[in-house]
Write a structure and sequence with these properties.
There is one protein chain. By secondary structure, the chain is mainly α. The chain folds into 3 domains: 14-78; 82-175, no CATH class; 251-379, no CATH class. Helices cover 48% and strands 0% of the residues. It is built from 16 helices and no strands. Helix 6 packs antiparallel against helix 7 (112-127) and helix 7 runs antiparallel to helix 10 (160-168).
Amino acid sequence: MSTVKIPKFGGDDFRAWFNDFQNCMLLLDCDENRAKQAKFFRVNLIEGSAASIWFDTCVPEAAKSDWNALVPLLRAKFDDSIEDKRAAFRVLTTTKLEDGEIGASDQKGTLKHVAWARTIAIAKQRAGQDPDNLNAFLVLNNVGPHLRSLLMATGASGTVGQICSKVEALTPNEVETIRDMVRRERDTAEMRTKVAQLEKRLARQPLEPVQYERYMPAAAVPFQRSSWDSQNIPPSTEDVRVEPGPFPATPDGHKRYRTAVESFYKKHGDGAYASLSKPFPLSPGTEAAGSNECFKCGRSSHLRPQCTATYSLPENEQRYRGSVMKQRRENGLGGSQNNKPIRFISQASYEREFRHLAEMPMSPPMMNDDALYEEDSENEGGPSL
């Protein structure tokens, strides 16, 4: 019979070592002898390792000779594998809470938003340290827009702990307010669907030529549907081009940025959400998304907690940059800048997207915004620069 080789332990990869050690104890017929198992463990500690130092300095004398007393101490000290941290991080960044789930109960009778908050809180503890609070941005992206607005308005969006505490302690009035907003959005969506269906039915029912002839001048040519279509149907917005940015920090760059934002809404409609197929422009003078930049000012020389800029990028651009980091982390805690991130945009007036431009540095120095875009009647109606 071959010699049983007991694995040595230094503190790393506890689970794999523990399984091998137990198998060896079975082969040696020591699986029921607590003293021998403890002795084999002590003899096979790697000298000078973290496990050896811990055994000599932290383990009580009684536990050193009793395997049943030693195992719980081993688990508490070393059973914190990288796989556990990654699994907790996935829970932390992918567990969603929609606005429609606020105030609703799950199969166990627990409020869904309360269960979500507790799950995220546990995942936060298991995911390890987060000194820059970057996980807060990722968690914030997984909640509905109305709940997200509430968290930001009440100052409970800075850390994962603040988010969990606020969500778990939502007042009845806050819950009812969010549910009312969800009902209104659902009713509006249903109305828009009905209107769209009605428009399609009308479009499939061509009007008789005689109906048009009643409104046409006597000298007008006879009605031809193809000719009428080409003159009266609004042009398609599919060809409208939206520059993605970021743009140069110059007067021309600021003008192109405004044009890009206006083109975005012209192409996709008021209140449209940005997405992979609907990219939203980035502010002038900022770094590309996903370049480890500050989410507040768009620069890559620091992170958001250390930002001293006097301006803040639009809320939705900050959230977009956080989403890029989320995608990079999900692709192996590093990711690739070639990935296409999801972009978000709020339903508020897009004029708010321009307020930060007044405080952003420009080269040459920023001109007066009104003068920059003032219509010059003497210059054939073009912009006066």
